[in-house]
Amino acid sequence: MSNKPIILYDIPSKAPGIAWSPNTWKTRYGLNYKGLAYKTEWVEYPDIADFCIKIGAKPTMTRRDGSPYYTLPVIQDPNTGAIISDSMRIAEYLDETYPDTPKLIPAGTHVFQKTFMAAYDHATEGLWPFIIPAVAKILRPTSEEFFVRTREATLGKKLTEVYPSGDDLQPAWKKVEDGFGKVDKWLNEPMNEGKPFVMGDVLSYADLMIAGEMQWCKMGFGEESDLWKDMLKWQDGRWGKLVDRLKEFEGPPEQDLVD
Which residues form a coiled coil (predicted)? Predict the structure, then answer.
């Protein structure tokens, strides 16, 4: 097999070459962890569906009305001709196609990885009212307009109304902290206590998922924000420590964004 760079399709932010999406971060981490050559091509939010259809990428899900829903990440592998959408399917593809690289989904853990992700999402769902309005502000104008319009249509309210305020602010943020505390408790069961990763000493896709969400929060809230600094203190700094452990797999900033 030749060694042409895999193309990772990602969503840009106002900061050129800086990734922010939690889902594309899973794939970015995975490519770097495996040591696979890749390059990023950036696709604005309103262009994603048409672009995916153009290159032959499959939708990641079906809407309630039966229409296809296209999202990123998508990778295009010129070494095999494959075009894969959805971060979990991409991880499966990379493990199968490049078996001599570290496994993202260790043998026998596929169901566990999916189950853990679902449980994690449920436990930390209180984060959404904070991060979704915050993310809108870091997007480039075309994507920001699309993001705000479509999310407000789905939620049935303005994003400014979604973000907790007044007397609701502190209880809502405490709910987020408690949710992450629940995850921390799972990871501190006796047989895993003191271990750095979800699977103990073994790095896996589940850790990339958590670290990707931490990148989402760091970018969305801002590194100097009170919210991000607060998150870094939670559960004895577990989440910041995870990001630090995976820093070598973040990869260099991609500076090929074209206005």
Answer: none
